[in-house]
Amino acid sequence: MSDKLSANEGIKTRSNYLRGTLAEGLQDLSTGSLSEDDQQLLKFHGTYQQDDRDIRAGRRAHKLEKAYSFMIRIRVPGGVTTPQQWIEVDRMADQFANGTIKLTTRQAYQLHGVIKSNLKRTIKEINDTAMDTIAACGDVNRNVMCNPNPYLSDVHAEVLKVSQAISDHLTPATRAYHEIWLDGEKIETSEEEVEPIYGKTYLPRKFKITVAVPPSNDVDIFANDLSFIAIVEEGQVVGYNVAVGGGLGMTHGDEKTFPRVADVIGFCRPEQVVDVAEKVVMVQRDYGDRTNRKHARFKYTIEDRGVEWVKAELNKYLGYELEDVRDFAFEDNGDRFGWVKDDKGRHHYTLFVQGGRVIDLPGYPMKTGLRRIAEIHEGDFRLTANQNLVIANISEQKRHEVEALLEEYGMAKSHDKSALRLASIACVSLPTCGLALAEAERKLPEVIEILENKLEEVGLRHDSITIRMTGCPNGCGRPFLAEIGFVGRGPGRYNLYLGGGHEGHRLNKLYRQDLDEKDILATLSPIFDHYAKEREEGERFGDFVIRTGYVSATKWGGDFHDNIKEDAYANKSS
Ligand code: SRM
Ligand code: SF4
Predict the structure, then answer these.
(1) Is the pTM for the entire model greater than 0.85?
(2) How many whole angstroms separate alpha carbon 565 and alpha carbon 111?
């Protein structure tokens, strides 16, 4: 391993706490783009430079600059947002972006297609709605997730507060964001400010935190750098189990990269959560690999040094010891659709949003319908980590009005779909994602349709099987935790992974490579037949394919690639 720091470390160091030349670059309208270094810094401010890949080749042929635009990610800690904020995001989607709202797998909003001349104004207007974009991306802690659990209202209120407190505490302290986007007062020298938690080079890589309330693992805690699992006794949160070292990104053909599920290492009291989050971040700040960005996530720090090491180091940073892990059990990592009434008598409706894309389609004007609901809604909207939406906290009196609008706009039966479709996630992928190798959001609905016919035939329409597709192995739709995962290899070609745990606790394993649409059906059909005939009582698809030998169970990250031996794990985790 080389000791030379990665290029991004230099960019951060020279950036004067994330300023770079962003302010100047934004003023240069002779190009739709920003400088390479500023593009890296821009991520810390919550936006990515992209181009429309559907028209890239045509523009190249005409010697035109790429069709540059920006994706803006709006942080929504815990996924809870007001109707007013929804209305504003809806307006901005039409006024500045491509007319759609994207609900992400981390409970955030994304706007795509914002051109450079509108970027500053859009970010300013987002802030006017009491939301922001700082740290939505970049080498810092990202949007903190939390179960949008509406059923246990007191417990949810408490864990939501915790996730918002973590988010606030770990938000970068630099004034650069205010200066560049909000015309805040300029601070001339970097000495006047410090980043008490991050320091001037921030973290080696992105960092992700969730809070979950069992039995729902809808936030997929095992995919996160750090998670808190609420332990509820007699309706009270008595504390949180702490899980560290999850992460999913990898590179095809590079076995040194792999997804990893988090280890549950201890328990802390509610009043210790923010401190634990801060100290875990600091351990990664100090020990994460800053020489190789493909090896810089916390999962590799833990994989290289061992779980026992991280526990001991964390206890040193904390100055006290985490307590022993408490018992907990997850049931699944999906959403529960339709209406529920909570313990306070309020109503909640979970709407299925395919691929998280809020859009008006012919015959299904969901975006307009949701705006109409937001205009009369007095509760809140909760973004789920499965890219769906909970219209939450509806009073008895308002329920009929909301129901009428759901009916009018065709959303009342949004969940009248196969269990497979309801348990699906697709990442954005083409045409906006610069890293995409294959389609995902635009492809998965078709693939599901083909599979649905087969499932119907063998009587499995109502059996929930998690199915996820991403356009590349970065893992944005968390495909490596799915019972059926498709990961793009090249145009129209996917690797098929099988055997993820239905509760989101076990990684899947590569079953077949380079499948096209035809191969997908041909490969999965006999397995569905077999499952329908020979599954045991209550046996999940992910468990079945392991028991019957289609794939072996993935026990740890490195074992994800078949040819790395399991006994290596014993050495690493001891
Ligand atoms: Fe992601 C990069 C979209 C959740 C792992 N992700 C990207 C970029 C920004 C592409 C880029 O770097 O140029 C994608 C923008 C596409 C677009 O056009 O919008 C992108 N990621 C997304 C979203 C929008 C997917 C979605 O369809 O919902 C999710 C936004 C979450 C949010 O609101 O913050 C999203 N990304 C995830 C997740 C899932 C999660 O966090 O629960 C993962 C896997 C978990 C993890 O981090 O390990 C994930 N995204 C990545 C990676 C690989 C990181 C790694 O450790 O290797 C990249 C590439 C990178 O960082 O170099 C990436
Ligand atoms: Fe883009 Fe790959 Fe993430 Fe999909 S998984 S959004 S293709 S980076």
Answers:
(1) yes
(2) 43
